[in-house]
Structure formats: C-alpha cells, structure tokens
Design goal:
The protein is of the alpha/beta class. Helices cover about 55% and strands about 15% of the residues. The chain contains 14 helices and nine strands. Strands 3-2-1-4-5-6 form a six-stranded parallel β-sheet, with helices on both faces. A three-stranded mixed β-sheet has the order 7-8-9. It is globular. About 50% of the residues are buried.
C-alpha cells in the first residue's frame, strides 16, 4: 500500500523503516530534516510537508508526542483531514487523551476518512524490533483493514473497543509500568540499604511471582544506574496526566496511580525528565537520602 507517515522520531523512524521493509511505499515527514534523510536511506521517501506525505496515501500514520501535535497535524488547515481523500485510513499511533482521539474520529467522519487510535507499548526497543504491543480503538472493519500494516511493526495487535478505547488501555498500561518501576526502585534501595546485593536479589524476584517484563529487561541497567532513554520521564509524566484525567472522566478513584504520578512528577522536577523512566530509582534514592556516586 501507499503509506504516509508523520512523525519520524525515536519510535516513528524504525516503525516507518519496517513498513518499507514489508513492501509498502512509504512517504514520511518530520520537522527534523535529518529524519527524512534517514527514511530515504531505508528506502522510503522524505516528504516536504504533511500534505506531501498524505497525498494519494491509502493509509496515513501519525506518531506524535502529544495531543496538541496531533490536533495541529490532523485538524489544522493543510493537515491530514484537509489533504486525504475519502476512504483513507488514518491510524494515530500517538499516546494522547481519549477525548482527542474521539474528536479526531468525529471530524474525520464528515470527510469519509476512517480513523483508528492505536497507541503502542514497548518503547524504542520494541519499535526497533517490530515487537510493539498495539492497542486499537475504532471500528472492527477498519481494524481488519489496518491489521497487515500494524503487524509489520507490532507483535501483539489487539482491537480493544470503539474510538478512544486504545488510549484508555494505553493509559492503564502506563500507570502499571510506572508503578512497577517505582516498586523496583524501592526494592533496590531496600536491598542495598540492608547490605544485600541488589542484582542477586532482583534475579530471585524475577523468577517468582514478582517477575515482570520490567524486571526481565531493566533490572541490571537499574542496578548499574544506566538511564539512557528508551522512554523518557518527560513522556511518562505526560502519560500519567492522561491516566489521571481518564480516571476523573470515568469517575473512579486510582489512589496508587496518583502516588506514581507524583513520583514521576518529582523526577521531572529534579531534572531527570530526559532520562529513561527507570530513573525513578534516582528519585527514590534522594527521598531516602541515599545518593550513590556517579557511575
């Protein structure tokens, strides 16, 4: 298929490259010119602007940082809805507020453009390995049409409900991920303060009921204090805001989510926003008065 891809950042660039490798004709646009050059090196085409990327596309994918970027790219003059033809399938893979996804779908309906919200989980590694988990909201028939495209970038691809449902599931994902990072951080601080080797202790935890994907992939880098971003605290802070807003909209109490959101916010306030979200360990260390030497 002919695809337009908007947003060639840390996640979008490898995803677009996988779509090229799957045999699709991909035109991509990003505000950073170097991102377009990288796509061309992978066999795609660097578009001049959003309209150029969208023109003639069967499917348009957006992978953007936050809801204002999606609103600008999709809803503004010269954006996706202005440029795409009737029948085009718009797949927004950004993590944004559910209400924005619903508003985009409603605006697209008048132009006979099909829409799915399809946020992803798996971080940079998942994007590079085409092993993302993708939670999709929208109509079942549109999901089936999108499945071959999504399968090229994801390993777990599930239709979870109507428009906006994908974003709600992603919010749930992020509150769980943030909570586990916070608890692993506390476990490391407790182990080290008690004179127990943290790496050994976490190896035991990873093999029992406390085991998780985070312990599997991140325990050694956390013990080693390696926090190069796969997913930045700044972005997780944004996502926790989405989770809290969704809870308010659904009229439910999520007390642990509120605590995790404050922990993430503290990390950002301490200047760790550009670090990986596993750097919540640094926050817990500071709260405990235990700041190790830099490694």
């Amino acid at each position: 298929m002919k695809l337009g891809f908007i947003g060639l950042g840390v996640m979008g660039a490898p995803m677009a490259a996988h779509l090229v490798a799957a045999g699709h004709d991909v035109s991509g646009y990003d505000v950073a010119a170097a991102a377009g050059e990288k796509l061309e090196a992978a066999g795609g085409r660097a578009a001049r602007d959003v309209a150029d990327a969208v023109a003639g596309a069967d499917v348009v994918i957006t992978m953007l940082p936050n809801h204002p970027h999606v609103e600008e790219v999709v809803l503004a003059a010269g954006g996706v809805l202005d440029t795409a033809g009737p029948g085009t399938l718009l797949i927004d893979m950004s993590t944004i507020r559910p209400e924005t996804s619903i508003a985009v779908a409603e605006a697209a309906r008048d132009k006979k453009i099909r829409v799915l919200d399809a946020p992803v989980s798996g971080g940079q590694a998942g994007a590079e390995q085409a092993s993302l988990s993708i939670m999709v909201g929208g109509r079942e028939e549109d999901f089936e049409a999108a499945k071959p495209v999504l399968d090229a970038v994801g390993k777990t691809v599930v239709h979870v409900g109507p428009h906006g449902a994908g974003q709600v599931v992603k919010a749930a994902n992020q509150l769980v991920v943030g909570g586990i990072y916070g608890l692993v951080a506390e476990a490391i601080v407790l182990l080290e303060a008690s004179g127990v080797d943290a790496a050994t202790g976490l190896d035991v935890l990873a093999g029992g009921l406390a085991g998780s994907r985070i312990l599997e992939l991140k325990r050694q880098s956390m013990v080693d204090r390696r926090f190069a971003p796969g997913f930045r605290i700044d972005l997780h802070h944004k996502d926790m805001g989405i989770a809290l807003a969704a809870a308010r909209q659904a009229d439910v109490a999520l007390p642990l989510t509120g605590l995790v959101a404050q922990l993430v916010a503290a990390g950002r306030a301490m200047g760790y926003g550009s670090l990986d979200h596993s750097a919540l360990l640094k926050v817990v260390e500071q709260l405990s008065g235990r700041v190790p030497a830099e490694v």
